[in-house]
Specification:
With about 210 residues, the protein is mainly beta. About 10% of the residues lie in helices and about 50% in strands. It has a single domain, classed as Lipocalin (Beta Barrel). Strands 1-4-5-6-7-8-9-10 form an eight-stranded antiparallel beta barrel. A hairpin with a 2-residue loop joins strand 4 and strand 5. The termini are far apart.
Amino acid sequence: MNRVRKSLFCLLLLSAVAPAAGKVESFRLDPVHSRVLFRVDHAGFSQALGVFPDVRGELHFDSEDWTSARLEVQVPLAGLEIGDADWRDKLLSATWLHARRQPVAHFRSTRVEPTGKDRARVTGELTLKGETREVALDVRMNKLARNPVTFRRTAGFSATAELDRRDFDMPSWPNVVGQRVQLDIQAEAVRYRPSTEPESDDADPQHD
């Protein structure tokens, strides 16, 4: 009996001194307020700009411990906006993005390293045009709070990255189109509940 009491006491003591488990929350990207903008040098004259307005994905993270974060994003290429229909079709052709062969670009995080307050470097695998390469995003969390319009808990982020288009089988026209492509990402993600709890419960202020 004494041995049982000692065992229970040890368990209680361990639970008292053990650090509290982090709270990992699940979010879905809001396609209305999430965008991927790219810019690339155009023969030294200007920076050509394009936008992918339809960005979808999920984020699972503890705002107090970014190392536990997991991010997965899908970008449908057909939504590309570049200001000219002919040039858009050229960019979606086999020479460039080859959207017919792989219609959706995919990014999956592999590690997250905090770099400062509300900042982190998110490294992951980007699959584009049948090629998968490691890409790093420099991310800043702008705000994590309840949206004043929808009353849903929302996380807002800005991120930048750079990639070499030759890594994704797009080496053409090197004297006209720059090799380095800059990415500017703006994203909002809305919390959801992956369990059986109804998502509408997220609008309850007591869960903020």
